[in-house]
Amino acid sequence: MRKITAAITGIQGYVPDYILTNKELETLVDTNDEWITTRTGIKERRILKGEGLGSSDMGAEAIKGLLEKTKTKVEEIDLIICATATPDMIFPSTACVIADKIGATNCFAYDLMAACSGFLYSLATASKFIETGTYKKVVVVGSDKMSSIVDYTERSTCIIFGDGAGAVLLEPSEDGFGIQDSILKADGSGREFLHLKAGGSVKPSSHATVEAKEHFVFQDGQPVFKAAVKSMADVSEEIMNRNNLTADDVAWLVPHQANKRIIDATAKRMGVGEEKVMLNIQKYGNTTNGTIPLCLWEWESQLNKGDNIILAAFGGGFTWGSIYVKWAYNSNK
Ligand code: UT7
């Protein structure tokens, strides 16, 4: 019997319409387009506006498009894993809400929280359900409404984040396509540099936590930046080495979009030229779990069956990792 691998057989993204430009941010905080562009590479980001809308709504839109595109019936979905750092609520899981919103009644569904590495953690987890032959159709969706936890009076964080979602369908392949290898890491001692202080079990929400602005992302940028540069480059190099891949063998690097300078450093260490690096941070900023699937979605028409693709991410936790994918299809260009 041939080994089953987990192939990505479809990809779909969703970004909200509202565009928050660097120019508009200049009216909110003491910043300027030049600083934001040179320090991060970001020009604009999307914001989900509208009462009562959350990460589940963007995730549901992405999955609806994915099902249509891949001609998959909603009742065929076995499992939905939602990677999110901005769940609709603490519970129930956003994945359950999404399943309800799209009418997926034959599946089980859960969230996976690994901050900006959540999409990779979820993809690796989902692949095991396929490789073992347990399930045939697993959807991984990364969705974050970062604007819900960003303080738009704090210039060092509000310029970075945006809202967005992306979803992939995983199915069994008997021809060796799909996820080949993954390296995932965690170091919780990094939590002091990137976290959300209140609203959890340690510090439940109160008037005092609201007044102290403790429901917004806290980030000490420099230590996070340094750890991200080292970790993303290390892990990407490691996955190439252990799969005997040279830079020439790699068709695409798909990095988490947190800061263009982190992306450039990772590509440099891998020896991969910028023409092979997917970069859309200028349009969307850091959408946390949306970044990697949004890149794949935008580049889908340029991907060819058999392409070696390296996905890499770093985020709060700290968490980080890299996944090696052999692309499974030629899209209808
Ligand atoms: O996705 C999850 C993982 N997150 C990351 O990977 C993010 C990693 N960190 C970063 O990308 C960068 O650290 C930031 C983009 C957050 C900040 O860039 P930086 O080059 O590390 O700047 P900094 O925080 O060291 O600040 C340098 C200066 C400071 O001024 P002084 O103290 O030198 O006078 C800041 O106050 O830049 C100032 N500054 C700004 N100036 C204009 C900070 N934010 C802004 C701003 N506009 N928006």
Determine the CATH topology of the largest domain.
Answer: Peroxisomal Thiolase, Chain A, domain 1
CATH superfamily of the largest domain: Thiolase/Chalcone synthase
| Overall outline | globular
> How large is the count of helical segments?
11
What is the element string, with H for helices and E for strands?
EEHHEHEHEHEHEEEHEHEHHHEE
Strand element count = 13
Question: What this model shows, in words?
Answer:
32% of the residues lie in helices and 25% in strands. It is of the alpha/beta class and 333 residues long. It folds into 2 domains: 5-176, Peroxisomal Thiolase, Chain A, domain 1; 180-326, Peroxisomal Thiolase, Chain A, domain 1 (3-Layer(aba) Sandwich). It has a 5-stranded mixed sheet with strand order 1-7-6-4-5, sandwiched between helices. Strand 4, helix 4 and strand 5 form a beta-alpha-beta unit. The longest helix has 22 residues, at 221-242. It is globular and about 60 Å long. The protein binds oxa(dethia)-CoA. The site of oxa(dethia)-CoA has 20 residues, from helix 2, helix 6, helix 8 and strand 12.
Summarize the structure.
The chain is of the alpha/beta class and 333 residues long. It is 32% helix and 25% strand. Residues 31, 35-36, 39-40, 116, 155-156, 159, 221-222, 224-225, 228, 258-259, 262, 286, 314-315 line the site of oxa(dethia)-CoA.
